[in-house]
Amino acid sequence: MDRIYRKTSLNEIPWNFESPPKELVKLVDSGKVKPCKTIDLGCGTGNYAIYLASRGFDVIGIDISPTAIKIALFSDLSFFWFT
User: What contacts 49, CB < 8 A, 6 or more positions away?
Assistant: First the structure.
């Protein structure tokens, strides 16, 4: 998995979406899912974790790829990332 993040452009990785799914946005916007402690397993480059943190969630991102976590760190240093 790490090799993919090292050798492939982020916009070519099929599961790397910058925007969170509309279903998640609807749940957060409606208040059905309220800010809380959250873990993003398989966070990749952290796009969804960063979105949730921006909405007040206390997020920890975990991924098997150290390279993906490094990319996430460069995107947002305000919370914890783990491999």
Answer: 38, 40, 43, 59, 60, 61, 72, 76, 79
